[in-house]
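Q: What structure does this chain adopt?
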Amino acid sequence: MASASRVRVGTLVPLAKDNAGSSNGSVSTIPIFEGSNVIGRNHLVVADKRISRKHLSLQTSADGSIEVVVEGPNPIIVRSKGQRRKVCAQEKAKIAHDDVLELIPGDYFMKYVDMADEHKSSVQMDSCSIKKGKRHSEEDSAAVKRNRQIMEDEALARTLQETFTEENTTVCGMTSGQKISQLDSAGSSGKNSEKMHSVGPLKDMLPLTFRLMRVQGLPSWTSTSSVTIQDVIQGEVLLAVLSNYMVDMDWLLSACPSLRKVPHALVLHGQDGASVELMKKLKPANWILHKPPLPISFGTHHSKAMLLVYPRGIRIVVHTANLIHVDWSYKSQGLWMQDFPWKDTKDLNRKNPFENDLVDYLSALKWPEFRVNLPEVGDVNINAAFFRKFDYSNSMVRLIGSVPGYHVGSNIRKWGHMKLRNVLEECMFDRQFCKSPLIYQFSSLGSLDEKWMSEFACSLSAGKSDDGSQLGIGKPLIVWPTVEDVRCSIEGYAAGSCIPSPQKNVEKVFLKKYWSRWKADHVGRCRAMPHIKTFTRYNGQNIAWFLLTSSNLSKAAWGALQKNNAQLMIRSYELGVLFLPQTLQSVPQFSCTEKNSSSRDGLALGKTINTKLVTLCWKGDEEKEPSTKTIRLPVPYQLPPQPYGTEDVPWSWDRRYTKKDVYGSVWPGHG
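A:
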């Protein structure tokens, strides 16, 4: 029964451990309806595998009490009338108004409020707030000002976004004049809008194959052209290769039930211990798990990608989210996706740089080869070479990968920041990008020094201007959330657990000159903390190039030169996609899931088109440059970024923060 047609009888309100009157940002408020209710992991703001997908079931009774059944393996605590009772798996207990549940003993406190008493409770809380008002007046005033500024910024941004979308989001294959339906500002889109969204975001022209992921809890206008995991994994998938660091198998199969029907699947992951045992227990029988080898200590498999084989071709996805609920629901994330057809038999030996980079990277993963039978293809071995069977000639990006090891000789320029340097050195850019700034945006900061920062900047500054001179070293700027950004985010301090950088890394003196604000009003994501990782070169008007990647700013991810630059040491597997004006000169028309799509791009062969990369907020005049194709990339933060103010403090996750967040919690929330 849909909740919209059921009668609400009460609410489970999250509480902080130390104060029954303040809320806890770890769990969302949960409405309770007549009949059966299920409480589980989806109600958490942060991932915690101690909470089962179906942790509790609640059955309402005519007398107003509620029967609670523990469905998961872990016990809960029921606090009622001064008594504290432990309730184990499959046991039952009754709760009434003002009773408190501990979803895990000592953690995740939820108070049940009967619907009849909710108004009275709110009045009492208001009265309590008035008494405390004097003590908190300064803090509340600052919060009000900040919220008002956010509302004003988002209103302006919404107008900009809607205007831009109306002008630019024509759907490929639709008749002239048809547009993607926009969700209304109140968030009620209706069934027609939902149906339109299911096909729209993957086909419209904005911004080709780079998307932001949808964030729950934000105004509906922020979802324009964003994607969910269901948008990505769709259609008749014959073979799936899912590459990631963290994989919540329970959530993944619930979020994408169609994956259970995929006949062959390979999961490349970076987990170990109990997490692997849980994946083995929950995975479908035909799925293969593989953790790529790590020849150097302190490394991990961190790449986030999907290879989805269809009857008509392959969909390749490179993104920034772990396969867990919180990453696909509450974080600012990015995704690149493009479909490629099978090669014609006459073209089987034809290769291009994208294909070579892909196969080289897949070869390094060393998964156990297996054999499958694919319709119209027959029996094939699934190894790295299998992926040469697809035509990548229309690829719109270059792949930039990292593979752990001590790389020497020609392999130095095959991986990490030296691979990026190698690709950029082959490119020519407008002279306006000479010595233009470099923007680094990521979610985890390694232990760095000025020598390595110079080495890294040298790679990202590579390339020549159109007059033949070198572009020159650009000044780095680091986009990083402040403590206040995290405190006021949609997750509160809980968001900081996914920005895992310690004080000793963040507060190095030489980094102060680089800090820049996370400001994302134009896409409505100021309060959705970034897990996306991007690197770019920007001159104040245009973008020279843009990299979406799994790599944070660390030597482990990008590599560090050693032995007089004769060796590059990398610890982790990473994968990113590089957007260049040279590769974005055509719009891909081929789709694995649409039978009427073509594998050709529809442009006249040999025709030269100048391409310019800009942000969504670019206000130039395209009509003045009819020979130039302008492509707007949804860069999720303001360019140029604002430097930190005197009161701004960069977030580090091992400091204590006593100023309460939007849920009334402090950090850390224990101890």
